[in-house]
Amino acid sequence: MNDITQSSPEQIAEAMDDTHLHDNPSSHLPVVANFDSTHLVIGAGVAIFHLATSRVVVCYHSQHGYWFLPKGRRDAGEDTDTGAEREGYEEPEAHHASAASSPFVVEPVWTQLMPVRPTVQYMLFWYIAETLPPNTEALLSHKTKEENGAYQKPPQFPPGMTLVERMNLDEGRDPPRHENTGVDEEEALYESHLLSVEDAREKLRGTIMADVVRLGWEAICTRQKMEKESVDVWL
Predict the structure, then answer these.
(1) How far is CA 106 from CA 41, 48, 226, in A?
(2) Can you tell me the distance from the alpha carbon of 224 to that of 51, in angstroms, rounded to the nearest whole number?
(3) In the chain, count of helices (H) and strands (E)?
(4) What is the pLDDT of residues 14-49, one digit of tens each?
């Protein structure tokens, strides 16, 4: 099957960049198109939030000098949300993450259609996720070592766990980095950074990725507000 990695980093960055985007970009009009499996590449990307410090994971290409969110091609038979979590882990020095179990961000927050070659269409789904609490992180790291570095899908957060409870699990702790998780020489050029939401949006300005961060953070803040109001009702 055709692979997106056959395109250069500059071509992929250019395809994902749109200098005409506003701070709150609007969707394009619906299109009708047909692609067989040899002319379609499906991928997933993710904004991984560390709730306790209001930061998000952003990657930097050390050779070509651009910022981006973790993303990549979905594996055969893999769900797109799982692919997004895996890509968040496989970026060098990146982090385990679990898709946020929130009614606001269960589904992709954005979907992009981009040509990667004259005859190949790329469909990219953007998700929101969270870093994992220490106990879960330690368990997954142990399983990863047992499986010779193979990615381990993390469990979902318990449905009844509030955002405040999640933040308390991470208080005073930065999520650990996992070194040498990249799958090729290209990914060895990536750097992973935890940035404030504002700084991340500024570095991603002009791309859909900036709005992925915005929508994810707004959803997190909305849920936190609803949970606080629910508690206040019972007081």
Answers:
(1) 22, 14, 17
(2) 11
(3) 6, 8
(4) 444 443 445 678 888 999 999 999 999 999 999 999
